Amino acid sequence: MSSVDSTDSPTDNATDRPTTVGALRASGHVAQSLEDEMRTNLLRALRAGEDPWPGIVGFETTVLPQLERALIAGHDVVLLGERGQGKTRLLRTMVGLLDEWTPVIEGSEIGEHPYEPITPSSIRRARELGDDLPVAWRHRSERYTEKLATPDTSVADLIGDVDPAKIAEGRSLGDPETIHFGLVPRAHRGIVAINELPDLAERIQVALLNVMEERDIQIRGYTIRLPLDILLVASANPEDYTNRGRIITPLKDRFGAEIRTHYPLALDDEIAVIEQEAQLRAEVPSHLVEILSRFTRALRESPSVDQRSGVSARFAVAAAETVAASALHRSTILDEADPVARPVDLAGVIGVLRGKVEFESGEEGRETEVLTHLLRVATAETARERLAGLDLGPLVAAIDAGEPIVTGDGVTAKALLAAIPNVEVVAQVADRLDARTDGERASAVELALEGLYLARRIGKDIGADGETVYG
Questions:
Q1: Contact at 8 Å (CB) between 466 and 407?
Q2: CA triplet 379, 381, 385: central angle to 5 degrees?
Q3: Do 271 and 255 have their domain in common?
Q4: What pLDDT, in 10s, does the model give residues 284-318?
C-alpha cells in the first residue's frame, strides 16, 4: 500500500479550525458523502474552466470525458489498457477532486466523520463525550489508498481480521472491537485504488463484492456492518482476462464504468509525455525527442512486436533519458562544457532498452534488426519533416568534393562543426532547428547528415571504434 503525494502537500498548520464536534457544528460545517464531494468539486472545476486532471496528456477527448461522467454518476471505475498508458497516473490524479481538508474523529482507525461515527468504539465515544468529541483534520493526500494486487494478497490485507493483541487485552472473541481493519475500511471516506486487479486470487475478489454493492464488510463470523463510504477504482490489462488471471464476472458487474485507455493518438501528445516525464541529465534537442516518439509509435504498429503486451510510454521516456546520459558521458570524457545529445547517441537506445519490448515468437534472433530498422525509419521521417524545403544539394556536393566527416563518442561538437563544409545551407539547417550553441548546431547538422545517408545521397561507415564516417 502507498499513498499518493498530492500536488499540494499538507503544509497548512492553521490553528483556527474547530477541534470539537460542537465547534464544528457551530462553524456551519455540513457533512456530505464522498460521491457528492467529488461531484461538486469536479463540476466546480469544469464550470470555472480549470483542468481537473493536471499532467494527463492525450486523453482530453477520449478517456477523460468518460471518466468525468462516471464520477458524476457516482460509479466505481475500472480502467482497462495495455501497460504504460498512464492508468495509475490517472487514478492518482483523482485525489485532486477531494476537499483539501476534511474533519475526522480524532483517534479513529478509519477516519470517520464526527457527525457520522460507524465503529462501535467511535459511537460509544460520541455518546459519552457529546459536543466535546475531539476533531482532527485530514489532508486529501491521506485519503487516497493504493494497493498493487499480488497473488499473495489476503482477505485480511484488504478487509481485516481478528487482532490477537486485542484479544490478549481481555476482550472476548466475539467483541467487534477485536477486529483489525484492513486497507479498504481504513480508506473510509476516501479513494481505494487497486492496480492490476486480475492478479488478485478469485476468492479475494469475492471479498470485495459486498464492499462494492452493499458498501459494508464481513469479517469471519462477525455480524458487524460498517456502512463504508469509498470510491473503488482499479486498473487492469485487457489480456489479463484470459492470461495471468481474470476479473470474476460478479465483480465486473459491480463496476459502474469500464473505461478503455490508450497510447497517445497524436505525435505531439507522445512528445509531450516524454518532455513531461523524462528526467534528462543533458540537453536533448526537440528533433531527437521527435525521433524517439516516432520510434515508439512505429514499434506499436510493427507486426514483429507483440501488440497484446504493448509498448509502454515508459519505453520512450527511458529512451530519452538514455540519450541524455550518452551525451553527458561523452561530454565528461571530452571535457565539453554543455552536453547536448546528437543523433549518434541514438544507437545506445537499442542495446539498453531491447528488453522492454516483447516480440512475436517468430522474430526470435531478429530483435536488434527490427529495432535498428524502425529507428532508422523514425530518423528519416523526422529529418524529412524538419528539413523540408531546404536544398541540401550544396552540402552533398561539398562532401563529395571534400574530406569525409567523422563523428562519434570521441568527437566534440566543435570538432564536428569544424569538419562541416562551409556552405550556406548549414546555417539554414541550424536556423530551422533553432540551434544556437555549438552543441545544438552539431546535433542539427548531424541530423541533416543522417537524413542524407538514409535518403542514399551520401555514404556512411561505422568503424570498429564506434566512429561514424559520412562521405
A1: no
A2: 120
A3: no
A4: 999 999 999 999 999 999 999 988 888 999 999 99
Strand partners, 113: 116
Residue 12 pLDDT greater than 70, yes or no:
no
Domain span at residue 352 reads 267-470
pLDDT value of residue 7? 47
Q: What is the tally of structural domains in the chain?
A: 2
Q: Report angle CA 317, 323, 327 to the nearest 5 degrees.
A: 145
Residues 252 and 321 in one domain: no
- Residues 92 and 130 both lie in one domain: yes
Query: Both 193 and 272 in a single domain?
Result: no
The three three-digit cell numbers of residue 176, written as one number: 467487534
**DSSP 3-state of 138:** strand
Three-state SS letters, 290-341 = HHHHHHHHHHHHCCCECCCCCCCHHHHHHHHHHHHHHHHHHHHHHCCCCCEC
What is the DSSP-derived secondary structure letter of residue 85? S
pTM of the model: 0.87
Specify whether 251 is located in the same domain as 271: no
- By C-alpha distance, which of 55, 60, 145 is closest to 95? 145
Residue 242 resides in a domain? yes
Q: How confident is the model at residue 4 (pLDDT cuts 50, 70, 90)?
A: very low
**Torsional sign, CA 387, 301, 284, 366:** negative
In the numeric block, the cell 475526522 is attached to 104
* Cβ burial 398-428 (10 Å sphere, 16+ → b, else e): bbeeeeebbbbbebbbeebeebbbebebbeb
Grid cell listed for 424: 550556406
Identify whether residues 314 and 274 lie together within a single domain: yes
What are the φ and ψ backbone dihedral angles of 451, each rounded to 5 degrees? -65, -40
User: E strands within 333-454?
Assistant: 405-407
Q: Which DSSP string do the residues of 102-119 spell out, in sequence order?
A: EEEETT-TT--BTTB--S
CA distances from 134 to 32, 107, 128, 157, 329 (A): 19, 9, 12, 29, 58
Q: State yes or no: pLDDT of 372 exceeds 80.
A: yes
| The three cell numbers locating residue 8 | 499540494
Rounded percentage of the chain residues whose pLDDT exceeds 90:
67
